[in-house]
Every structure is written in C-alpha cells, then in structure tokens.
Design brief:
With 315 residues, the chain is of the alpha/beta class. The chain is 38% helix and 24% strand. It is elongated, with a radius of gyration of 22 Å. The model has no long low-confidence stretch (mean pLDDT 91).
C-alpha cells in the first residue's frame, strides 16, 4: 500500500538531513549513514532521507494511509522549521502500492534484451515451449538477459560444482551448465516432475544434459544431504520465497571462499518495499535481504535486474 516520495530543492540537503535525524532521535529510532543517508522510524512508519546534488530526497513508507500521512506531517513540519534562511517546499507524491512501482520500465527492459548475448535456438525453443505449455506460470522463467548473466557469472568464478534451487522448466539450468568448466556439474533441485519434464529434452539439444543432475523432492533435504565441506562454486536460488533464508544458510555453509550465491526475485514485484504486505514470503524476503547486507561471511550487491537479483560472494 502506501509509499510516497518528495524532492526538497535546497543547497543544504546534508545539513537538513543531519538536523532532522538528530532532532527526532529522542522520539524515534534514527540512523545516520555518513552525510548522505539517514532513516527515521516512527511508530506510524519510516522515512528515508538522502542528500544529492538536486536536494533532499524523502521516501516514506507505512502500513496504511493514516500512518503515511502522520510520518509525512512530522517530517515536513520539522524540515520547514529548520529552514531559517530559505523557504522549503515539501510536495509529496500520491501514495502508491509497492506492486505498482515500475522497477524496470518496459522500454529499458527491451533495450537490455536487445543488447546482451542473445539466446540460441535451444533456449528460444525452450522459452517458447514453456509459454505454450505452462501459461501464466511461464513468468517463473528467467529472462534472456538474466540467463546470460548466470552464464557469465558461472564462467567468472570458474565453477566446477553449481547448485540450483528451483528448476522450473530448466532455462536457467542450461544457462548455468553452459558456464561450467569442462569437468563441471550442476545439481538442480525441484519438486515438480511435470515442470522439469518439459525442459529435460532441451538439455539434450543444448548439449549440457551430461552436466546436469536433477533431484526431485524438497530442496532443503537435498541441500542437507550434501557434504559439509565448502565445495559449491556458485548457487542460484529461485524457488519458494518463504524458504529462501533456509536455502541461503545451508548453501553459504557449503560455499567455497570466493564462491557466489545468486538470489532471484528479491523485490517480490515491489512488495518488499511496502510494509503493507505482511505475507510469510514478504517477511522472509525482507529479513533475508537485511541479513545478507549485514552478514560478515559475505560481500554483497543487490541489482535492479528484472525483479531484483542479489549477488553474495563468500569472503
């Protein structure tokens, strides 16, 4: 539900940011990150403040419109009060829901697809077959540019052992397998024989069937059955979102230093940004996103690729 932003034009954005965070510290939970970012968390909602060359940017989130209005009012009143040498205008955008955010404009998305290594016949045929046979479920398949990214990342870490949680019809499986070293293998996990059977013939056509081992059954059981030593070079998690934290933990323990975990759909269609969404998978994804950025075992970056992709490299 409610998300709202404002750009306050000023030559003193960092000054106002620090003033607001400091002043509200006695009535709210606040945090200052350097001179350019701060957060103010009130009972009603949260405001993130960032200072840049254009001014002070404000992002307010709350679980309902009443809470949003309260946070907007507190922030705006204090900013105007601090401005003794200029007049500040705080014009909030109309509230929107997280799912209505355009995380990737269609024009940008098309341009990205047109300017990365294109899928070959085997991948195009698999994508077409997936759309024809699975209908609306075909949105679970990674896009062509994300598939190209998986192949490149697998090659960059010189992977010999890869793990995938969530096979669907196997498009991403082909992409990962193609990036493996000559003696490499991919262990891919899924619970659906129906979906995976659609993609298995394409593994043969793509010339990677001998590199892929499919395990049907709960992925957590498959992961826990792996040896405890850190032997995984790269892992891709793209399955049931509520169990992402469990998959991540089992994999990170078995990931070799310098190895990479790739997590898909970390935006959940924009719903992770919106506190109104409190489903089990929304809560689990938010907690995992917060955990990874603070996990001293890894260095990480979150990318606005399609529905959000996180890369976590083990130290």
């Amino acid at each position: 539900m409610p998300l709202s932003t404002a750009l306050v034009t000023t030559d003193r954005p960092a000054r106002y940011l620090k003033q607001l965070v400091s002043h509200l510290g006695h009535k709210a939970t606040t945090r200052l990150s350097g001179n350019s970012r701060g957060t103010v968390s009130l009972d009603a909602g949260t405001c993130v403040l960032t200072a840049d060359a254009e001014g002070l940017r404000l992002i307010v989130t709350a679980s309902d419109t009443e809470g949003l209005t309260r946070v907007q009012d507190v922030v705006a009143r204090h900013l105007v009060r601090f401005a003794t040498q200029e007049t500040l205008n705080v014009d909030w955008t109309e509230p929107v829901a997280g799912e209505d955010l355009e995380t990737l404009d269609p024009v940008v998305g098309d341009y990205l697809l047109a300017h990365c290594t294109p899928p070959d016949d085997a991948l195009r045929e698999l994508a077409d077959t997936t759309r024809e046979t699975t209908g609306g479920a075909s949105t679970m398949q990674v896009s062509g540019d994300e598939g190209a990214l998986l192949t490149m990342l697998t090659r960059l870490v010189n992977a010999r052992f890869a793990v995938e949680v969530g096979t669907f019809t196997g498009y991403s499986s082909v992409c990962i397998a193609r990036g493996l070293a000559d003696d490499g293998r991919l262990l891919t996990c899924d619970i659906s024989d129906e979906w995976t059977s659609i993609g298995r013939p394409s593994w043969e056509r793509a010339g990677v069937a001998d590199r892929i081992e499919l395990k049907l059954g709960p992925a957590i059981d498959t992961l826990r059955a792996l040896p405890a030593e850190p032997a995984i070079d790269i892992a891709f998690i793209d399955a049931d979102k509520a169990n992402y934290p469990v998959y991540y933990e089992e994999i990170i323990q078995r990931l070799r230093p310098g190895g990479l975990v790739v997590l898909d759909n970390v935006f959940l269609g924009g719903r992770v940004f919106d506190p109104a969404y409190q489903g089990e998978h929304h809560i689990a994804m938010r907690r995992l996103n917060d955990l990874i950025v603070g996990d001293e075992r890894v260095e990480s970056v979150m990318l606005p690729v399609r529905d959000g992709v996180t890369l976590a490299r083990k130290r």
